[in-house]
Amino acid sequence: MSRAEICAHLPHAGAMCLLDGVLSWDATRIACTAGTHRAADNPLRRNGRLHTICGIEYAAQAMALHAALAGGGHTQAHVGYLASVRDIRCGIGLLDEIEGDLLVEAEQLAGEEGRAIYRFALRSAQRELLSGRAAVVLKP
Questions:
Q1: Which residues are CB-neighbours of 79 under 8 A, at least 6 positions away?
Q2: How many structural domains compose the chain?
């Protein structure tokens, strides 16, 4: 899946579309790659730095992409909202210090029409950088 195809499934455009590729996905899981944490023009940077907590947006985009693909691969992006995030664990302070690509994983734990709970993790070189759970609401 190309970056353009990924962005077509998300309500984000340009530099705000943070994912670069999809490694795998099925009915409950998705694994994506991203290198945009190294980009100087990353819109989530503040004072030139990208704090690890911004990884929640990477995970949210993976969740939204999973919902689109698992829901039949609709080509029109759906707007989604994070209703809550819980059990957040940050393994480092800054994502921009990571030289390699990010592995962004999300697993749907529960879901019904327009709502889901996901567990997510960001990793690089087998090191967990961020993890947690999120409740999301999707609107067509």
A1: 11, 138, 139
A2: 1
Domain residue limits at 83 = 3-139
86/83 Cα distance (integer angstroms): 10
Q: Is there a contact between 130 and 121 (Cβ–Cβ < 8 Å)? A: yes
> Cβ atoms within 10 A of the Cβ of 48, count?
8
The Cα 80–Cα 63 span in angstroms is 9
Distance CA 87, CA 70 (A): 25
Q: Which two tokens stand for residue 139?
A: 């609107």
CATH number, domain containing residue 28 = 3.10.129.10
Q: Is the pTM of this model over 0.90?
A: yes
How far apart are alpha carbons 63 and 118 in whole angstroms?
7
**pLDDT tens, position by position, 15-61:** 999 999 999 999 999 999 999 999 999 999 999 999 999 999 999 99
